Amino acid sequence: LNASIEIDFLHPEGAIDDGIYGQFIEHLGRAVNGGIYEEGSPLSDANGIRKDVLEKIRGLRPSILRYPGGTFTKIYRWMDGVGPRSERRSRPNLIWGGVEDNHFGTDEAVAYARLLNTDTYFAVNMGTGTAEEAGNWVEYCNGTQDTYYANMRRKNGHADPFKVKYWGIGNEEAAGPDIGRLQDVKEFVKEAWLYTKAIKLQDKDAKLVLCGADDAWNDHVLKEMGPVCDYISMHHYVSSDKTKPASLFPQVDNMEQLILTLKRQIQTHTTEKVTDFSKWYRFPHRANGVKISIDELGIWEPGGTGAYQLEEYYTWEHALGTATFFNIMIRQASIVGMATWAQTVNVLAPIMTSKTASVCQTIYYPMQFYRRHAGNISLKAAVTTPDLQVPGSKDAKALDVAVTMHEADGSLVIFAVNRHPELAIKADLRSIDTKYTPVTAYELNAAGIDAVNTLDNPAKNVVTETEKQLRGPFTSYTFPAHSVTAIRF
Ligand code: AHR
C-alpha cells in the first residue's frame, strides 16, 4: 500500500499543551481502593500507596490528575475525606455501589499528585452539594489567609496551600439516569454562576472547566459563561463491534469532528480576550481563549468484569486506537487544552492490578510513547492514505499521521499509525530533507492486533519498541502492519 506525507512548515497548528497527557481517577470500583491505594498490602507503603502502581503511572509522566469523579462527584462530600483517617465517615457509594471509607480524600489526592509531579484538577459536586461547599473546598485547598477552612488544612498538617489549579464545575450534568438535577441547560447555567462566584472569589487564579454536553448545551454555556470559561469539557468513549473488523477506528476518528464542531462554537460565542467587564464585575475573567478539556477519554467495550463491568483487557488494536487519539489531539493542538484518560487503574485502564501484581496493558505503551517522543509544536501535514474497509460503517484511513517539532532543538517528529491489520504502507516523505543524520525511527508493535497483556502473566509484555538508525537521503519510509512509529529528524 502507498501513501504520502507532506509537511507544511509555514503554517504551524500551534503549541501542544502539556495538559493532554493527563489521567483521571474516580472512586469507582477498584480505581482508588485496590488500584492506586491499598492499605495493609505488602505492595503498599506506610500510607497505603501501591508502590508498584505508582511506578507504572510515573512511567507515563502524567501532567494532570483529575479526581474524585466522574459521576461520583455528584454525591461527594469533600469534608468526608479530610482529617484523621480514623475519624472519617464511611458512606455507601450511591453511584457505583460498595462502601466508600474515605481514607483516600483531598489530602491524599494532592499528595499523590505531588508524587507524580502533576497539576491537580478537582471536580465539584453539583448533585447533592452546594456552591458554598465548593467554595469552602477551594478555601481548604488554596486559602492563604487566617480563615476557617484554610486553618483546617493547616491543622491537618498542610501549612502551605495545595494550589489546586483546575476546578471542574459539574460532570456530565446533562446526563439523565444518575443523580444529576441540572439536565436543563438553563438550570445548569444559573447554578454554575453560583459555583463560579464561590470558586473564583476564593481563588482568582482558579481555572474553570465548565461541563459540556451536546451542541445545543455547549452553545448556551459558551454564550452565557464564555468570559469565565477557561475550558469546556468533552467526554469521548469508543467501543468496537467484535463482528466487524476495524470498527473501533471510525469512532476514534469521530473525535476529530467533535473537536472541530466545538471549536467552531467556541469561535462563534467567545472572544480570545475578555474586554467588556461590565457584566462580570468583581469576577476575575479568563486570561486566554477558551480551550477544550477532553477530561474523559477512553475505550469502553461491553463485557468487562468488576464494578459495572468496567475492568477489561485491551488488545493491540485498542492501542492503535489510543495512538490515533494522540495524533488527533496533536493535530487539533490549538484548541485542545487538556485531556485526562478515563481512567488510570483497573477501570477502563492502562494499568490493572491484583492483590499480588500489576500489569501495563497494551494501551499504556502508546500513551508513554507520545509523552516521550512528541515535541511541543504541532505542524500540519497533507497526507494521502489508503482506506481501511470497515463493514457497515464509513471507511477509515489506514495511515493516521501527526507531526510535531521540539522547539528546544528544532527536531521534527512524524508520528504514523498504520492501522492495517496485515499490510505495510510505504509513504513518500515530501518536503523533508532526509540527508541530515541522525534520523531515528522508533517503532511500537505487537505480533498481531489481538495481542494482550494480562495479569495471568504480568512479566510478559507483548508490546515491543524497536529503534532503527536511518541513513539519509531517503524519500520514503515503510510503516509495518499494525505499528506506531515516531521518526525523529
Ligand atoms: O469513567 C466512568 C464514568 O463515565 C464517569 O464516572 C462518568 O463521568 C462517565 O459517564
From TrEMBL:
Gene3D superfamilies hit by this protein: Glycosidases (3.20.20.80), Golgi alpha-mannosidase II (2.60.40.1180)
Keywords of the record: Carbohydrate metabolism, Glycosidase, Hydrolase
Q: Which residues form a coiled coil?
A: none
> Known Pfam families for this protein?
Alpha-L-AF_C (PF06964), ASD1_dom (PF22848)
Question: Subunit notes for this chain?
Answer: Homohexamer; trimer of dimers.
- Entry's family note: Belongs to the glycosyl hydrolase 51 family.
Name of the protein described by the UniProt record: non-reducing end alpha-L-arabinofuranosidase
Q: What is the taxonomic lineage of the source species?
A: Bacteria, Pseudomonadati, Bacteroidota, Chitinophagia, Chitinophagales
